[in-house]
C-alpha cells in the first residue's frame, strides 16, 4: 500500500482530505486549520480582532476546538457553558462542565457557567416534561433555552459577537431538512453570520461552518484536547442524525458534495434566490419581554419565560 505523504513536507500524512485533494502531516494540518478559520472569519466579515467574543462551549470536540483556535489567533474570547441538568449513566452534564472547566483552567481563560436549574428552577428534561413545546422530549425546549440564555448572556456581558461551533456537517443537515420541506423563512436565515439588532439580538457567527466534522475531530485529537465523547442521550433517533447519515453516504461516493451543497446555497442566497417577494417582507415587530427584557414577537412573556412560568405554576 502506498504511503500517503504531506503535500507540504513529504512526511507521512496525518490526515487526507479528499474533498480538498489535500493530505497533511500533523504540524501542517494544525497550521492549515487555524489559517482557514481566520480566512472564514475574514471572508464572511464575522468579527474584528478588537471585538469581544463569547464562545458557546458544550464540552464537545467542536466547541473546545473553536475556543482553542480563537485563543491561538489572539482573539478576546470568553466561554459560556450551560449546565442543562441532563443526567444519565455517563453523567452527561456534569462531565461536559468538567471538560469545559479543565480546558479553560489549562489556558487561563474565562468561563461563565449558567445552571438552568439554579437560575430557572428546573432542569431541561423537567421543563420539557411539563411543556407543550417539549411534549416529553427535551430537544425543542433545550434549543429554545440555549438560544435565550446565550443571547441574554452576550447582551448583558457587552460582547460584540456570540460564536458557535456549528460545523459543515451540522449546516448541511439543517440545510437538507429545510430544503426537503421548503422552509423558506429558515433558508433565508441560514448563514455564517446573523446580524445583531437594536431590539436586543446579538450578532452571531459560525467560524467552523465550512469545516467537515472529521476535520474538527482531527484538530482536537492532534492538539490533545480532552472532550466529552458521548452524544446527548436525548439525540437518539433525531432527524438531524438521520440526515447526517444519508449525507455521509453521498459524500463517500462523491467527495466534496457537502461543501459544494453549502457553498452553492450561500451563492444562491447572494443572488437573491431566497429574497422575499413583494408583499412578503413586512418587518416583524419585536417587543421586549416584560419578564426578562429579551426581544419577542409576543405581546406578553417570550416563549422561554412562558415555559419557565408553566413549570412554576405546576410546581
Give an overview in words.
The protein has helices at 26-43, 61-73, 92-107, 116-120, 124-130, 138-156, 168-180, 184-189, 213-223, 239-253, 257-270, 303-314, and strands at residues 15-17, 22-24, 52-57, 76-83, 111-115, 161-163, 193-194, 204-205, 287-288, 295-296. The protein is α/β, with parallel strands linked by helices. It has a six-stranded mixed β-sheet with strand order 5-4-3-6-8-7, sandwiched between helices. Strands 1-2 form a two-stranded antiparallel sheet. Strands 9-10 form a two-stranded antiparallel sheet. The radius of gyration is 20 Å and the shape is globular.
Please render the helix and strand layout as text.
Blueprint (H helix, E strand, L loop, with lengths): L14 E3 L4 E3 L1 H18 L8 E6 L3 H13 L2 E8 L8 H16 L3 E5 H5 L3 H7 L7 H19 L4 E3 L4 H13 L3 H6 L3 E2 L9 E2 L7 H11 L15 H15 L3 H14 L16 E2 L6 E2 L6 H12 L1
Parallel strand pairs: 3-4, 3-6, 4-5, 6-8
Antiparallel strand pairs: 1-2, 7-8, 9-10
Helix pairs in contact: 1-2, 1-9, 2-9, 5-6, 7-10, 7-11
Count the domains: 1
Query: Into which percentage range does the β-strand content fall?
Result: 5-15%
How many extended strands?
A: 10
Secondary structure category = alpha/beta
**Widest sheet, order of strands:** 5-4-3-6-8-7
The gross shape turns out to be globular
> Which second-level CATH architecture applies?
3-Layer(aba) Sandwich
Distance between the termini: 65 Å
Considering DSSP H and I runs of 4 or more, what fraction of the residues is helical?
Answer: 40-55%
At the third CATH level, what is the topology name?
Answer: Rossmann fold
CATH superfamily: HUPs
Calculate the mean pLDDT score and round it. 90
Q: Radius of gyration from the CA trace? A: 20 Å
Number of helices: 12
CATH class: Alpha Beta
Q: What can be said about the biggest beta sheet?
A: 6 strands, mixed
Low-confidence stretches: 278-282
Secondary-structure element string: EEHEHEHEHHHEHHEEHHHEEH
Amino acid at each position: 500500500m502506498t504511503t500517503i505523504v504531506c503535500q507540504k513536507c513529504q512526511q507521512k500524512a496525518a490526515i487526507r482530505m479528499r474533498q480538498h485533494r489535500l493530505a497533511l502531516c500533523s504540524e501542517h494540518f494544525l497550521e492549515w486549520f487555524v489559517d482557514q478559520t481566520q480566512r472564514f472569519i475574514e471572508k464572511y466579515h464575522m468579527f474584528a480582532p478588537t471585538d469581544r467574543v463569547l464562545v458557546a462551549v458544550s464540552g464537545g470536540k467542536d466547541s473546545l476546538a473553536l475556543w482553542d483556535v480563537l485563543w491561538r489567533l489572539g482573539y478576546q474570547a470568553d466561554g459560556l457553558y450551560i449546565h442543562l441538568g441532563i443526567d444519565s449513566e455517563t453523567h452527561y452534564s456534569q462531565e461536559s462542565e468538567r471538560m469545559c472547566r479543565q480546558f479553560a483552567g489549562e489556558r487561563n481563560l474565562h468561563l461563565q457557567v449558567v445552571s438552568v436549574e439554579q437560575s430557572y428552577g428546573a432542569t431541561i428534561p423537567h421543563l420539557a416534561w411539563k411543556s407543550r413545546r417539549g411534549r416529553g422530549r427535551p430537544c425543542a425546549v433545550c434549543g429554545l433555552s440555549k438560544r435565550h440564555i446565550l443571547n441574554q448572556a452576550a447582551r448583558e456581558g457587552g460582547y460584540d459577537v456570540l460564536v458557535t461551533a456549528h460545523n459543515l456537517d451540522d449546516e448541511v443537515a439543517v440545510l437538507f431538512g429545510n430544503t426537503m420541506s421548503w422552509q423558506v423563512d429558515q433558508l433565508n436565515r441560514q448563514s455564517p453570520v446573523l446580524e445583531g439588532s437594536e431590539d436586543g439580538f446579538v450578532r452571531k457567527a459560525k467560524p467552523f461552518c465550512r469545516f467537515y466534522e472529521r476535520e474538527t475531530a482531527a484538530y482536537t485529537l492532534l492538539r490533545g484536547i480532552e472532550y466529552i465523547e458521548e452524544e446527548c442521550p436525548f439525540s437518539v433517533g433525531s432527524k438531524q442524525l438521520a440526515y447526517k447519515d444519508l449525507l455521509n453516504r453521498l459524500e463517500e461516493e462523491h467527495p466534496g458534495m457537502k461543501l459544494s451543497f453549502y457553498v452553492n446555497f450561500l451563492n444562491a442566497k447572494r443572488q437573491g434566490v431566497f429574497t422575499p417577494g413583494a408583499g412578503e417582507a413586512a418587518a416583524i415587530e419585536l417587543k421586549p419581554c416584560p419578564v426578562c427584557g429579551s426581544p419577542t414577537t409576543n405581546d406578553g412573556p417570550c416563549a422561554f419565560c412562558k415555559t419557565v412560568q408553566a413549570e412554576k405554576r405546576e410546581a
